[in-house]
Amino acid sequence: MGTLTGGDPAKLDIEELLATRLLVQGNSGSGKSHLLRRLLEQSAPWVQQVVIDPEGDFVTLADKYGHVVVDGERTEAELAGIANRIRKNRVSCVLTLEGLDLEEQMRAAAAFLNGLFDADRDYWYPVLVVVDEAQMFAPSVGGDVSEDARKMSLGAMTNLMCRGRKRGLAGVIATQRLAKLAKNVAAEASNFLMGRTFLDIDMARAADLLGMDRRQAEMFRDLKRGNFVALGPALSRRPLPIIIGNVETSARSSSPKLMPLPDAHLDVEGLIFTPDPEEFTRPLTANRRQAPAPRPTTDILAELSRSTPASLQPAAAEPRTPLPVLTVEEREDRLMAVMAEILDDPQSAYRTDAVLYQDFLVRARMRRLPGPPLSLSDFRRRTAIARSGVDAAMASSEAWTTVLSMSNSVSDDLQGVFLMMAKAALGGEPCPSDARIARAYGTHSARRARRLLGYFEEQGLVVVHSDFTGKRIVAFPELQAETAPGSAEAPDEGDLKIAAE
């Protein structure tokens, strides 16, 4: 990685790092990106690398080390598929998110990380996953992005740091401020490289992570650019100051330098206030540099295939069978049949939407369904409706149309529970038990099920009350309907079926 203060080489054990993960912290200008670049360059010949790059600084690795550059301006399904093939073919890559706004960056990074995480067990090869500016993807508190995007990104980062080791994913995360990084993500790292920082709260957390006395935390203010304090099984058993060495590639951006001003013109006011005739013909758009056009998915697939060993290449390309021509109704029937196959599995209630969506895409490809695939949001919506158990007669009624309109006011993860309760009210069925509500939400916690009903009541969507025997009734004022009395403690038939199997 560089040298110690005495001039001896500072070494990092890559195999130990793959098992223990790394956290890098330092204020802007402390040399974090330089450190990550040094780590990537030195380990490139030995381990597959994946870089989540929000500013496009690491794309220069492609020229010297052969990293595939993946533009993040794609659909979530495309990014998940590319990530899966990245693992399958063991190709190093840089996911550049330059040109996207913050919420789009979070969604793209989450989809890509989930694609890496969900790879088949046969492809759990060791991968160094470097995430620059990790506080953007795992914030400690909510910001100006939607709650859905924040949960999606934070969940992917948590999987990387908490559960990624068994899948061969070794997280290396860099952040400007520890206080902005979610604690459950930072706490999973066992190796630390702490750079220059000035705020008391960040210095105190850095000292705590390194096992130093808080009175020694002042030293982090005095660190020079490119100097870090290292600790961890892959670095040193005791806090050790190191100086990061030189790198062979450079970022496209650089630190600002002083430049002499141009020679003063005599007629400065005329130069500034006299318009250029071409200005009147230019469109009134923001002067923003356009993001590079994303590379077609076919180009990336071709590059991945070239990276596959010759022994694994097919002898000759087989002619592809054309996709069948289906009417809109036939295609819809087949899509619903695929969804029914997935949801018929009792365990599907406890799998994440991302896992079910990947299963759906695979099954749809196997049946060679033509047309663009469903988006993840559309899949979630259809899944919620299917799990509610609504029949064709009720689905065509005006009351169910009102239910669907009301469900738009709740988040995607709650729609399945809301639609199930509304269907029970419209049909006069007994109120679902806590266990049934919990399974619809994808959990085993009865307490969480009761909190969901309380949340719906706070939003003014339902009214929860009991009959004279103590059984629960859920009423929908806008529908003028309510469930029949039902026991909150009753067991769930789905869980009993799973236990029997």
TrEMBL record:
Location of the AAA+ ATPase domain: 18-278
- Residue segments, region Disordered: 482-501
**Listed Pfam families:** DUF87
Q: Which residues cross the membrane?
A: none
> What SUPFAM superfamilies would the database entry show?
P-loop containing nucleoside triphosphate hydrolases (SSF52540)
Kindly provide the name given to this protein in its UniProt entry: AAA+ ATPase domain-containing protein
Q: Which organism is it from?
A: Rhizobium soli
